[in-house]
Description:
Strands 8-9-10-7-11 form a 5-stranded parallel β-sheet, sandwiched between helices. It has a 3-stranded antiparallel β-sheet with strand order 1-2-3. Strands 4-6-5 form a 3-stranded antiparallel β-sheet. Mean pLDDT is 84; it is low at 1-5, 265-287, 527-542 and 962-971. Helices cover 60% and strands 6% of the residues. The longest helix is centred in the first third of the chain and has 27 residues, at 155-181. The protein contains 45 helices and 14 strands. Helix 9 (203-215) runs parallel beside helix 11, helix 31 (690-702) runs parallel beside helix 34 and helix 32 (706-715) packs antiparallel against helix 34 (726-742). By secondary structure, it is mostly helical. The radius of gyration is 32 Å and the shape is globular.
Amino acid sequence: MNAYEDSVRFAVLGPVRAWRGEREVDVGSPQQRAVLAALLLRRGRPVTLGELIDAVWGEEPPAAAVSVVRTYVSRLRKGLEPGREAADAPRVVVSVGDGYLLRIPEGALDLGVFEQRVAEARKLRAGGDPSAAAGLLHAALGGWQGAALAGVPGPLAESEGSRLNEQRLAALEMRLDVDVELGRHGEVIAELVSLTGKYPLREQLCKLLMLALYRSGRQAEALAAYRGTRGTLVAELGIEPGTPLKDLHDRILAADASLDARPPRRTRPPEPEPGPSVKPASPVVAHAAIPAQLPADLPTFIGREAELDRVRALLPETDDVPTTVVIGAIGGMAGIGKTTLAVHWAHEMADRFPDGQLYVNLRGFDPTGVVVTPDDAIRTFLDAFGVPPMRIPASLDAQAALYRSMLAQRRVLVLLDNARDTEQVRPLLPGSPGCLVIVTSRNQLTGLVAAEGAHPLTLDQLTPAEAYDLLARRLGADRPAAEPRAVEEIITRCARLPLALSIVAAHAAAYPGFPLSAIVDELRESHGSLDAFAGGDDITTDVRAVFSWSCKALSAPAARLFHLLSLHSGPDISAPAAAALAGLPPREARGLLVELTRAHLLTEHFPGRYTLHDLLRVYAAERVHAEETPGERDRATERLLSWYLHTADAAYPYITPRRLRIPLDPLPPLCRPREFSTHDEALGWCETERSNLVSVVHQAAASGYPGIAWRLPAVLWGFFYLRSHMHDWLDTAGVGLAAARAAHDRVGEAQGLADLGAALRSSGRLDETIDHLRQAMVAYRDLGDHDGRGSAVSNLGDAYLQTGQLAKAVEYTRRGLAIERVIGSAWGEGIALSNLGDAYQRLGRFDEAVDCLDQALAVLRVNGNRWVEGVTLDILGTVHRRLGRHGAAVEYHLQALRTHRDIGNRWGEGHTLSNLGDVRLEAREPEAARESWLQALAIFVEFDHPDAEKVRARLGRLENGPPGARAQGAAEPGRTA
């Protein structure tokens, strides 16, 4: 029998099937196919009996499930290896521990072939070869024989089938997009019509259909397709289409010439002309920052020369730009030195990537279970490039596309540390050549190697010579040379692991008079077993002994703080937060943190901010449960969470001065929150602690502190709004609301509904805003909370104002105004009057508008609400412009500008300058209008605000005749109560 006849192939993209050579193998009953599918989808990794049982039957397996699964495996072995003798070990379905794995050659699974073709197509398209990309995508999709895992029962088939079918749809959308790009719009219309009927909620399909119809001269049908999709979205989900679809609709209406079919791009980009290279302008920021985020290189780095030679060889020896994205995947067990090697190599290569170095700890194996999601990582990277938060899209796909656009034509080094799996990494990969990506992970990222062409490097323990050199580098050459046997045993007991050796070396260096043999004796006495560390690796040496011994050398307060630090779920911790956690004075806590840092049990990654290695966090968590009572653990957690809440509350009046405070529970004993003296100091603390604050909301919700979970987002309202951290705002407000509801806390539920409504309003999701504010209004009414009800009603009026429902806006704003006056809330009264004046001016009821706005100014000035005062002055300027009173309009706009500038409201300043330009143009002062618009444009470009295009359009029209009427009713920022 030849090799081909003996080869096996499998299919899951349709019914689950198998072949030996050209002969199809009978894979048995539906349940037996479910077992085969579970083995195939694990891609060569073991599947336990329990996992197989769950895959087939879920939570209700039969009594004989174990024997049934073994029978299925036996039958599969017979079918896949018909000529195997009974005495021979199976070669395809192999027993591993309490389970099995399936060994198949590369390319023998249709799913792997599909993923590889799609990944290659993505690279070809990014590299300027859409024609070749289209061919690969057609071939990839041609391998599907129906719905994935068709006919296979069980929970695994249901969940994995949905995931795979979604991958197929995404690839299909990409293929159709490329076909339209290549000018095949007429050929894909029928297919797109069918697909939009089958998947009416997929906006990308509608977008492609609209573009194909428009390029085929069928503009009316393109617009009809949009109306149909919008109607479905509104009727079924209560939402409007996303920005890309709405923008395409507007461009089709305007017959935008840039939508016309363009010749396909060249297969190969043209050779650059001699001379200095010029990068294309970023689509998002005019001048992107150059990030330099690499952690510090270890000055005592030693060894790993063979590994360094391998990774150095991945790049050209000269400074030539790599022709592809180079991906190095460094794997190995915990504590083996992956991050140290990656950081050292990154620093070596940094000067070859002059456009920046990005770093993120993905926390893939964090003992707290908090893993950095791809969208969180991308937002961090975009922020490093200076992309304003308001310009970062909501969906992961859109964020990844923007991220890849930022890296296009740039030479950037990206270090993705501590990745969990390929799916966490893939969205973070650049899409065009010239970049280097370094990934570290405890897992073998086989998907990254197979589909993305990553170069794997698995680290083993240090060699004995390298381990000796590490100790000699840190202790000096004399001490190891004087006690070679002690050094040999230290190396053995540390399993030649850099982390364990570094901890021992730090202790030995701190006590230069101690013989190394004494340290060996202490290590022997600390024998134990760090189960979480072993994780199935072939390391039997007791690493817990090193940690235990190192902790014994600490003072008792430092050891206690080390244990308590494992209770913190955030990515790092500051000295004041650590003091609150331990219930200590800040000065004493700082001294203990220094002690832990010197013992290499803690890393000070930034001045005053500390992190724990994952292994040390595991060990600290074990010790805190062993040595601290449940009551003390609960009190420490409460102190920590309360410290964040009360410190955020201390920042609140500096960020949103004179706004109604959120009532808080009293501070627990021994908890001292920070204080602030300036707006910038308060805002800076919130920005520095943002990731921790988000983690605290989640931790509070999960650990039985719902009051903190809903109060913290309420306190952070002004910070999230001012910095446009919409994702974090929506996330924390949603978690807080869910926590309040789970605790049956009606007060928290009402506040959570109001907070989530405010976040949705700022995110432009106005229909959802209205729904949440209506619920908040009812909740506050039931509670008898007149302040909350008045605010909810007023904000509901503002939401209707932004949607253009002016009659409802007037109705609800007047109701809110009445409530605010009855309860004596001058703060809410001023905002309601301003909103009501804006609604009246949009309706053309100018006398009523001026009356309301004048009243608003008086109330706002008495209460010091300068933010809304500036907005109100700007609206008065708009009213007088519409009445033809240009002199008065200019004066109001100038007053608004002074107010915006006094409080640093740059967005408000930009809007007012834009409006001032409109007035001056109508007053036949084109040069003055130009000057105002240029100033507005500079601000909008600084923030990458979408109104920059509107201002550019006005500047363009200055050259084309008399001024036209300006559309009224532009939404003003920051006027919710």
